[in-house]
Write a structure and sequence with these properties.
The complex is a heterodimer. By secondary structure, chain A is mainly alpha-helical. Chain A folds into 2 domains: 5-74, no CATH class; 84-156. Helix content of chain A is 77%, strand content 0%. Chain A has 4 helices and no strands. Chain A has helices spanning 14-45, 52-74, 84-113, 119-154. In chain A, helix 1 (14-45) packs antiparallel against helix 2 (52-74), helix 2 crosses helix 4 and helix 3 (84-113) packs antiparallel against helix 4 (119-154). Chain A is flat. Chain B is mostly helical. Chain B is 62% helix and 0% strand. Chain B contains 5 helices and no strands. Chain B has helices at 5-11, 16-23, 27-35, 42-52, 56-60. The chains are: A mainly alpha, B mainly alpha. The A-B interface holds A 12-16, 76, 79-80, 82, 147, 150-151, 153-156 and B 15-17, 24-32, 34-35, 38, 40-41, 44. Chain B: Residues 5-59 form the HTH cro/C1-type domain. Chain B: This is Helix-turn-helix transcriptional regulator. Chain B: InterPro entries: Cro/C1-type_HTH, Lambda_DNA-bd_dom_sf.
């Protein structure tokens, strides 16, 4: 891909670049259809009256989550993980990465909401942080697992 | 797309990751090309042909 600024944001590997562009195109097409249906329903059937900021948030959320899930489930994020040793090493690094993410989550939460003053507030911080850490780890783990199993099938005989 | 990349690579005793490094792609991409699950761009076909010292015909032209 040349002559477009977006090329700088894409992978240098042409297979990954192509797959990523497919996922972006799929998500944009689905979102366009959904927005068109929304427009029809809102204009001619029921006045849904969704605020602009909520609509923007939903649209952005849909685009990001769709592309993220497609990339994760296709197994293109770890193209070099093909041996058991590298898989185990990467899995360990994902565990540590997730713990670091959880700690960062708590720090950022503390910066915006202030240091918890009582047990209830501590639970209010630890709860979302734990869920976010588990979610972060699972997403990475599924992606790693998918990539590993895809790469194993492509190894030299 | 059927091709002879794997046979040509094995003939020159090159590993998948070595060919990937030379051609500037990932090992996964080389594996997919060899398996016929991904059709490479012309630029990548040329890079692979040069790395394996073969012509495009020898690697990618189906004969039978």
């Amino acid at each position: 891909m040349e002559k477009t600024w977006v090329a700088n944001l894409l992978s240098k590997d042409e297979y990954r670049e192509k797959r990523f562009l497919y996922f972006v195109a799929e998500s944009v097409l689905i979102l366009s259809i959904l927005l068109f249906l929304y427009l029809i329903v809102d204009s001619f059937l029921i006045d849904l009256n969704v605020p602009g900021d909520v609509m923007a948030l939903i649209s952005l959320g849909f685009l990001s989550i769709y592309i993220l899930l497609r990339s994760t489930l296709t197994g293109i994020e770890y193209p070099e993980i093909a041996t058991k040793v590298r898989y185990k090493k990467e899995k360990r690094s994902k565990v540590y990465g997730s713990i670091r993410f959880g700690i960062l989550f708590i720090i950022v939460y503390g910066v915006f909401k202030g240091i918890p003053a009582n047990l209830q507030e501590v639970v209010n911080v630890i709860g979302p942080a734990t869920l976010a850490t588990i979610f972060f780890f699972l997403l990475n783990y599924i992606s790693l697992r998918k990539s590993y199993s895809k790469n194993r099938k492509l190894l030299d005989d | 797309m059927k091709n002879n990349v794997k046979i040509a690579r094995i003939k020159v005793s090159m590993k998948q990751d070595e060919l990937a490094t030379v051609t500037g792609v990932t090992r996964q991409t080389i594996g997919l090309i060899e398996k016929g699950d991904y059709n490479p761009s012309l630029n990548l076909c040329i890079a692979i042909a040069k790395a394996l010292d073969k012509t495009l015909d020898e690697l990618f032209w189906e004969v039978d």
